[in-house]
Amino acid sequence: MSMLPSPSFQAAVVSPNCRLYSVLQSAPHGTMDEVFGEVLEDRIADATPLKAVTYATLFTYLHRRFGYPSRASDPYKDLSAAWLLSTPEPDIVIHVLPSVNGNHFTFTIYTTTERTPFKPEPIPREEQLRIAGAYRSLLLDLLRPVCIQDAHINALGEVDDDELLAYDEKEEAPLYEVKYAASSGYPILPGLIGTKTWEELLGQAAFFGSDRLDGLTTIVTEGRNRIIAQIPNEPVDVQVLIGMYTTLSRPNAPAIEIDFAPEVPERIAALQAVLWKDGRPTSEDLAIVNDAAVERAGRYLDALAVRDDLDKAARRVRATARLNEVYEAICDACGRDFPDEVFDEKPVLWNDDDVQRAVARMKESGHDALAETVERLFSTDPWPTTRCLHALQAQAIEHRKNRDSGPTPG
Question: Is the separation of the CB atoms in 339 and 367 below 8 Å?
Answer without folding.
Answer: yes
